[in-house]
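Protocol step 4 of 5: obtain the predicted structure for the target chain.
Materials: sequence only (see below). No template structures provided, no constraints applied. The aim of this step is simply to have a reference model before the mutagenesis design in step 5. Sequence pasted as it appears in the construct record:
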Amino acid sequence: MTHTDLVDGWRLTATAGTPDDLDDALAAALAAGVPAAVPGTSHTALLDAGLIPDPYLDRNEEALAWMRHVDWRYARPLVEAAPDGDERVDLAFDGIDTVATISLVGADGAVHEVGRTANQHRSFRFDVRDLVGSAVELRVDLTSALHHAQALEARLGHRPLAYPQPYNMVRKMACSFGWDWGPDLQTAGLWRPARVERWRVARLAQVRPLVTLAADGTGRAELHVTVERSGLPGGDAPLAVRARVADVEVTGTIAPGHLEGTLVVEVPDAPVWWPVGHGAQPLVDASIELTSGGAVLGRWHRRIGFRDVAVDRRRDAHGTRFTLVVNGREVFVRGANWIPDDHLLTRITRDRLARRLDQALGAHLNLVRVWGGGIYESDDFYELCDERGLLVWQDFLLACAAYPQESPLLEEIEAEARENVVRLAPHPSLVIWNGGNENVWGHEDWGWKDELGDLTWGLRYAAEIFPAVVAELDPTRPYSDNSPSSPGFAPDEVHPCDPDHGTHHQWEVWNRVDYTHYRDDVPRFCSEFGFQGPPTWATLERAVRDERGVMVTDKHDPTFLLHQKADDGNGKLDRGLAPHLGVPDDFADWHWATQLNQARAVAFATEHHRSWWPRTAGSIVWQLNDCWPVTSWAAVDGDERPKPLWWALRHANAPRLLTVQPRDDRLVVAVVNDTGEPWTGRLDVERESLTGDERARVALEVAVQPRSVGLVPLPDDVAVPDDDTSEALVVRLDDQRAVHVWREDVDLRLDPSPLTASAAPVAGGYEVTVRARSLARDVTLLVDRLDPAATVDDALIDLVAGTSVTFRVRTDATLDLDALTSRPVLRSANDVVVVTAPIGSRA
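Step 4 output (structure tokens):
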């Protein structure tokens, strides 16, 4: 096979739908055409040409709303020789966004339609043997996805969904239409590579490896090979197939007229692939070569990993388990939900994905859940997860909506599922398929039933089509009906979001109640929970500005609110702050307080979940990443900077954790040991005043087995304070420490200025030493306020009286030492508390 990549030479024009009041220069350019790279979209092409402003900045998203109504044309010259004898010629598109008509234009001007598409989530291939040679131009005409969806909705009937535009009527990235953390841009283009392929006899259409690990250590790769025959003379020839996995080679044949063959390769004493924190991640080469008469027709190569995966869903005394089991070992999932890392998908590079996944590892995560309102990610994404031991939970792409089960959507949804199950099968990191996000829960609880009447809503996808596709094409992996979902699809018996059964989403916290209510339930597996906070200061400075180009520092300003998509988001932030820190009036204080409150809320839930292992078997926070600059639930903002939440996740998900938790009306220390070695030693517990005076002390010997949690009850002399407004509990074991207080910060006698600090230049940046004369909570350096590129090695450190911490700041900039050691860079909870009801003199 030979191929020509169709990267260059494209021009983009607007063929319909441009507004009458469009700038004259822009209108002329759109009519004449602008250069367009492929992969790319209309937005990236116009950005590259300098014709539109950055949609992520200020209020530009609103200014570019016209683009969603435009029909676009991608066109390029096509210089391809006529087929030589029995040669087949195909046009191959790995991804078209989204509703397209593909045509070839002959030298005589005649337009020959070769195919139509309406699905961003699958690839397409068209036989153009009879047209190449005489064709001189390739065209891809893209219809407005919004108009297409509206027309299909008018035909099939409206189905309820979480947002106003009918994203459930077109197979396009759902969040392209906007979400409560994302912009509404509705891109259009050729978002994955396109090429011309020329081949003879047969081509290697598909290789589906089913990889397992036997109890005796034998790795088994069952390689299912599918070919496409040319349909031309000689195309029914016998085919030879050679497979090689590690150092083991087997051969086979595909008989004349047949399209499939299976080769089984067994590798004795196979290297075992483990999740991060449980072992190594060895990957072995697997390859297929297809030949006919000695001529090589196609090659396939991937790296695979030998491992076994299952989900334990047995009933027990507490309900129904949902415990991931890898290689026979139960794994507590420390996870985060994943959205597309840039709303303009073609800008996502392998290096960017590597940085983000390394940040996931840095937060001690072992799983990312690819959420159903986004995309099936690139091969780069899954390869990087394979290398890092990051487990992948993969949703099928249905989210927060009722979906028609009629044509053409039913066929498209099944086709994309089948293609992507096969595409992703080689990756050991992928450990579970999930039937969609909040579709079943929405049907039960969000008032859909009355609105739907007799209309279909998508149950067939979750309960029939997806599990059948997985059972047929990838029986090595478990399938779950939905997230959240209780086993059995029997809502009259078990609600789909019942915390005691299967997977659970906790959104009462954030939407309605305070984060302390996370402890109301002990979920079997919490696959979504989270709390909002704004992006870093440097990101706001770059992206959220007024007409003068100055950062907006009014949280009620329309520009700020355009980058806050949640319903009553700022109101929820303030109501979430009030019981804990109070609500500051100053914007810089409010910014720090809301970031801190987000971090504390998620850490509170995470430590609660981990303390209940093995009853609770997973904790997947919403969300790891952002796709643009926005106030959101993310731990890493749209400019790739960690928010305080990221540091909270790093601490709360540490392999070894001490956390003070309530059990049966008393306090215990949960000693969480998610390592392969026992954790033994002396647990030192001290009750002391905020200024460091010892009130009571006890030492307790502990021994916690690997992958276990030990609960250590605390004696009353340390667990019960004399004055709960002016005391703290400090717990230490080896290098781990936890600080517990009995009251919220607004009710504590915290010193508002408990710190002294000094800074000194060192190679690569600065060292900042901070010392506390009284308890200082969540001491943090917001170094991006001085240099947007600066980083720091830790954050959210509780310093008890008389202790210190040295932060290491990496930067190439020259920083002011006074600025580095004072507000608004050096912060703590103490300096932002709004005391509404004084409780006496402060200790």
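Step 4 remarks: The first strand starts at residue 2 and ends at 5. Residues 599 and 645 are 4 Å apart (CA to CA).
Proceed to step 5.
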